[in-house]
Specification:
The complex is a heterodimer of chains A (113) and B (112). Chain A has strands at 3-6, 11-14, 19-21, 23-26, 32-38, 44-50, 56-59, 62-65, 75-77, 86-93, 101-103, 107-112. With 113 residues, chain A is an all-beta fold. Chain A starts with a strand and ends with a strand. In chain A, strands 2, 5, 6, 10, 11 and 12 form a six-stranded mixed beta sheet that branches. Chain A has a four-stranded antiparallel beta sheet with strand order 3-9-8-7, with no helix packed on it. Chain B is mainly β. Chain B contains no helices and eleven strands. Chain B has strands at 4-7, 10-13, 19-25, 31-37, 43-50, 53-57, 64-70, 73-78, 87-94, 102-103, 107-111. The chains are: A mainly beta (113), B mainly beta (112). The interface between A and B is medium-sized, with 27 and 27 residues.
Chain lengths: 113, 112
Amino acid sequence: GDSVTQMEGPVTLSEEAFLTINCTYTATGYPSLFWYVQYPGEGLQLLLKATKADDKGSNKGFEATYRKETTSFHLEKGSVQVSDSAVYFCALSENAAGNKLTFGGGTRVLVKP
Amino acid sequence: DTAVSQTPKYLVTQMGNDKSIKCEQNLGHDTMYWYKQDSKKFLKIMFSYNNKELIINETVPNRFSPKSPDKAHLNLHINSLELGDSAVYFCASSLGQGDGYTFGSGTRLTVV
């Protein structure tokens, strides 16, 4: 079945550092890929998405490129802020009936001033 | 104007009780979902409804019964609550296949 693997956290960074969170997936078809962010005590918010190979999703300084050859969708940000402290989830959708999202285990990011 | 709202936000109850969580979306989306997030933040789908029709039922115990009176509402009723049901339950909605979800803010259920 489908699965998503993310690097385990927590990832601790200083403000203005470069952030990378690795995400790889296993899927039978050609899924859509997503990154979600969850701030403490809140629900998940869609951060960015990509629907086909070589697409780049971007939002709020975050970027991720859909790499079919390496089945990866790594999240990057060039200069993090304290407000980026959150849990980040990589997810895929096989575009099948029901539009099920399969999530990775989440990566907690802590940015220190 | 909240897009996906679920109530209550917190729910503390004793083992064996029956409880319900309500969810409403005002986005005009066709598909709604229930997800369970455990203490390690792992998220797993429970149910998916499309226009009031059950599409996904992901090996959830029969004690959990979703009900969708219309496409804007998806409620979750849980019978005979067990300690292992303690988790955060998220409602979400989406427009269609391949679209991202909009999540509610979650209901933290604690069974004592």
